[in-house]
Write a structure and sequence with these properties.
about 500 residues; five-stranded antiparallel sheet; signal
């Protein structure tokens, strides 16, 4: 009884210690009216304190003309510059890539080997353009840039291929030891500190995950396999927290499954042993559930482990780009469930697309919860947490949860149609559970009628950017107006004892 009372007292003390009020303030909002007679897409790239970059593409019917407008805004959403690029009508947008200084846009002629790469200086808006060819009519899946060379990965005759294209002399070269049967490119990643390219391949026949390291000149330096049939990596990202010791991190599965069992880490510059972290070993993997359900699942896992049984929790995981922190880095991911809907959209916007995962095709995704893990600079797990996403649905498979920081608190936020939901954690502790905040129109006389493809991006400090497509009823106008919008949101957490 005394222990029980102590437990209750400690819980009350924790709740009082972390009692806090929170506010999500909507600041400036930018709107672009949309035309219904053209295909329009918008790509938003946050630049932290430097502002935000917007790429707006407009393609007229029958591909008569394509226009690409680039806008740079400062941290108050005031426009700094705008530049426009008009590609040859035969060229289609394929991929984009950004590093600290430049944004790159890859174009390709349909069913031809001709390509073009546009380079935009993020600071000034200056642009340059280079054309060349791919040597073969490949299906492009990956695009990265290292200094003055582009590396383009994809498939030709169902086998992987990577082409290196030089902006200096406009020549192309196929990387060696890539074009083989039963292989598929998993990821292309660059190490800008060491001037290396990392190519990750998956062999679906024997469930191998292969890593190849290439020099800036395109020469193969090293090739090695990771894992085995019981623990096979299924994704990988190169982390350069320490310039001398890059780390490869991603998800792993058993066999050739696409369902992840947990995370792995591997030092790339030495022969250290690969480290695996099973979902079942995380303290708070199920903390997004109510306490009764969480405890029931934990007891089940504990009993299996006591009987010497392997505990395998299999999930589809969307892994974000790794986030650097003062202690090391933070990994953020969402658990999702793919679906296929025959009539996905009843609105005027037909933005649904098909995603191929393995041999299956999907066009809708439900997100159950987000996982957050903090690591130190050596790759040791320090804390973990999870947040409910309430089974939100999306026609796009992309990152939903975004994170900013206030002192040692992490603010997690994600969009849900016209709402923004937020939660606050402090390591493995929950400070504030989910709260809802409404998105507002540009003025009090305007009303948001419908919302589509609402997205959120972490910006700088405690700020987020909400953006997407809305139908707005404006004052004194008979018809609704379709717009693409960008809104600045700032989250403030104030402890009540302050």
């Amino acid at each position: 009884m005394k222990n029980y009372q102590k437990h209750i007292v400690s819980i009350l003390f924790f709740l009082l210690a972390f009692s806090a009020s929170a506010q999500l303030t909507q600041g400036k909002r930018i709107e672009f009216d949309r035309r219904n007679d053209i295909d329009e897409e918008n790509l938003l790239i946050p630049l932290k304190e430097s502002g935000v970059l917007l790429m707006q593409s407009k393609v007229e019917p029958y591909h008569r003309k394509s226009t690409f407008d680039f806008y740079k805004y400062d941290s108050t959403l005031t426009q700094i510059w705008k530049t426009t690029f008009l590609p040859d009508p035969e060229f289609d947008l394929v991929k984009t890539f950004r590093n600290q200084q430049f944004m790159y846009v890859l174009f390709k002629k349909t069913d031809k080997i001709d390509i073009g790469v546009l380079r935009i200086d993020v600071e000034t808006g200056d642009k340059s353009y280079a054309e060349g060819n791919l040597l073969t009519n490949m299906d492009i899946e990956h695009f990265v840039v290292l200094q003055s060379k582009a590396f383009i990965g994809g498939k030709y005759n169902d086998r992987p291929v990577v082409v290196m294209f030089s902006f200096f002399d406009y020549t192309s070269k196929v990387l060696p030891e890539v074009h083989s049967n039963n292989l598929a490119i998993n990821e292309l990643d660059v190490d800008e500190h060491g001037n290396f390219l990392y190519l990750m391949l998956k062999n679906d026949r024997n469930c191998q995950f292969i890593v190849k390291k290439y020099s800036y000149e395109g020469k193969l330096i090293k090739s090695f396999s990771l894992g085995n049939r019981d623990t096979t990596p299924i994704s990988g990202e190169v982390l350069n927290i320490d310039k001398e010791h890059p780390i490869l991190m991603g998800n792993y599965a058993d066999g050739c499954s696409l369902l992840a069992l947990g995370f792995y880490m591997q030092q790339l510059n030495d022969d250290s042993k690969i480290q695996y972290i099973n979902f079942a070993d995380l303290d708070n993997f199920f903390s997004f559930l109510n306490s009764k359900r969480e405890e029931k699942i934990k007891q089940r896992i504990k009993q299996k482990k006591q009987k010497g049984k392997d505990v395998k929790l299999r999930y589809r995981l969307y892994l974000h780009d790794i986030i650097p922190s003062n202690d090391g880095w933070i990994m953020l991911a969402e658990v999702f469930y793919p679906e296929y809907k025959t009539s996905p959209s009843s609105t005027g916007w037909n933005n649904w697309r098909n995603y191929r995962i393995g041999n299956d095709v999907y066009n809708n995704f439900r997100y159950s919860h987000a996982i957050v893990c903090g690591f130190d600079k050596t790759g040791k797990l320090i804390w973990d947490n999870s947040v409910s996403l309430k089974d939100i649905e999306s026609s796009e498979l992309n990152a939903k949860v975004q994170m900013t920081q206030q002192d040692d608190y992490h603010i997690l936020a994600y969009p849900d149609e016209k709402l923004i939901r937020t939660a606050v954690i402090r390591g493995n502790q929950k400070v504030k559970n989910l709260e809802n905040f409404d998105l507002k129109a540009s003025s009090e006389s305007d009303r948001i009628v419908d919302a589509e493809r609402t997205n959120l991006a972490a910006w700088y400090g405690r700020s987020f950017l909400a953006y997407g497509y809305q139908s707005v009823k404006r004052n004194n106008e008979m018809m609704n107006t379709d717009v693409f919008y960008i809104s600045k949101l700032t989250y403030t957490l104030k402890k009540d004892n302050e």
